[in-house]
């Protein structure tokens, strides 16, 4: 893969073979960013997993950086008021299902009560492809709509290891204070460690790195952050 001049110049500003303490790594990411827009700071965590194992959950980042999410709630009439009062952008049942079947997807996250999942399941091909399908493992299938929406609005995000055992997650913007970025990184890494499979052997966290949208990656000395 070829890189532009600015990327190559940024590589000269640090030692890409060294793992840095978290705060220092984040500082370097901020320094190495060169785009004219406010780049996103991404975290990549490589974990050691067997084929039968997985790591997936949600975490509330201490410092939010996205615009407020548009939350859609699938629920029956008796739960509509609760969803609306909790701050849902859209609330409905069959009406929303039909609207989505027609191609409408103007929302960022979907929540459903368990009694709606049989009908919502019909949208599997549409919502699943876009990562919008409600799932009990991520807290988006629940009767406790007030708590679910409260966490989503605080900045709850989902993380999941891909087939190669890597968790990729946006944790902030280059314009944020390094302390806040470091706290967001630490919150995610802590939660990933907490989800270590019970039968996992040896070292679980293999590597951790942070980077900006356009900039190079910086290794984080994870053992220094224990």
Structure overview:
The structure is a single chain. The chain is an alpha/beta fold and about 230 residues long. The protein has helices spanning about 5-10, 20-30, 75-85, 95-100, 115-120, 125-130, 145-155, 180-195, and strands at about 20, 40-45, 55-60, 70-75, 90, 110, 155-160, 165-175, 205-210, 220. The chain is built from 8 helices and 10 strands. The chain has a 5-stranded mixed sheet with strand order 1-10-9-2-8, with helices on one face. Helix 2 (about 20-30) crosses helix 8 (about 180-195). The chain is globular, with a radius of gyration of 20 Å. The protein starts with a helix and ends in a 6-residue tail after the last strand. The mean pLDDT is about 90.
Mean model confidence by pLDDT = 89
Helix share, percent: 25-40%
Strand-and-helix sequence, N→C? HEHEEEHEHEHHHEEHEE
Number of distinct helices: 8
**What's the alpha carbon Rg, rounded to whole Å?**
20 Å
Sheet with the most strands? 5 strands, mixed
Q: Regions with pLDDT < 50 over 5+ consecutive residues? A: none
Beta-strand percent range: 15-25%
Spatial strand arrangement across the major sheet:
1-10-9-2-8
Query: How many DSSP-defined strands?
Result: 10
What would you call the shape?
A: globular
The helix-and-strand class reads alpha/beta
**Cα separation of the termini:** 34 Å
Notable traits:
226 residues; 5-stranded mixed sheet; globular; 22% strand; alpha/beta
Layout of strands and helices, then pairs:
Blueprint: H1 5-11, E1 19-20, H2 22-32, E2 40-47, E3 56-60, E4 71-74, H3 77-85, E5 90-92, H4 94-101, E6 109-112, H5 117-120, H6 124-129, H7 145-154, E7 156-160, E8 166-173, H8 178-194, E9 205-212, E10 218-220
Parallel strand pairs: 1-10, 4-5, 4-6
Antiparallel strand pairs: 2-8, 2-9, 3-7, 9-10
